[in-house]
């Protein structure tokens, strides 16, 4: 298994973000929210991900960066759950909805449940 999170797997670009938020579907596992869309990428990466912490809830950049770092780490350790089981290309945006600074254990558990519910939802939609 590859536990890296290289630059090519990061979601960048205004057009991709707009498409995810306009056409995307949502899943929640408090304090995380996943917004995703089926997107074709030129570099043929199965999933590209971005992580967001709200400035309204966390005024200090240090706190927002810490949250995004925890989200990236949890995703990096659990992305094998989806990379081995999906067909097609997806763009993910993970949003942190909580009001308090999380610990890694909480974020990791919710990330696992979010990725599993994504697989369940997509699998059942494609194979009724």
TrEMBL record:
Q: Which reaction does it catalyse?
A: Endonucleolytic cleavage of RNA, removing 5'-extranucleotides from tRNA precursor
List the Gene Ontology MF annotations in alphabetical order.
3'-tRNA processing endoribonuclease activity; ribonuclease P activity; tRNA binding
Annotated Gene Ontology cellular component terms: ribonuclease P complex
Listed GO biological process terms: tRNA 5'-leader removal
Give the EC number: 3.1.26.5
Entry annotated with the keyword Cytoplasm? no
Q: Tell me the keywords, alphabetical order.
A: Endonuclease, Hydrolase, Nuclease, RNA-binding, tRNA processing
Protein origin, superkingdom = Bacteria
Q: Cross-referenced SUPFAM superfamilies, in alphabetical order?
A: Ribosomal protein S5 domain 2-like (SSF54211)
**Gene3D superfamilies named in the record:** 3.30.230.10
PROSITE patterns to which the protein is assigned, alphabetical = RIBONUCLEASE_P (PS00648)
Q: What class of enzyme is it?
A: hydrolase
Homology family? Belongs to the RnpA family.
Describe the protein's quaternary organization and the partners it interacts with: Consists of a catalytic RNA component (M1 or rnpB) and a protein subunit.
Q: What does this protein do?
A: RNaseP catalyzes the removal of the 5'-leader sequence from pre-tRNA to produce the mature 5'-terminus. It can also cleave other RNA substrates such as 4.5S RNA. The protein component plays an auxiliary but essential role in vivo by binding to the 5'-leader sequence and broadening the substrate specificity of the ribozyme.
Instruction: Write down the HAMAP family for this protein, in alphabetical order.
Output: RNase_P (MF_00227)
Q: What is this protein called?
A: Ribonuclease P protein component
Query: Which species is this UniProt entry from?
Result: Flagellimonas lutaonensis
Q: Which gene encodes it?
A: rnpA
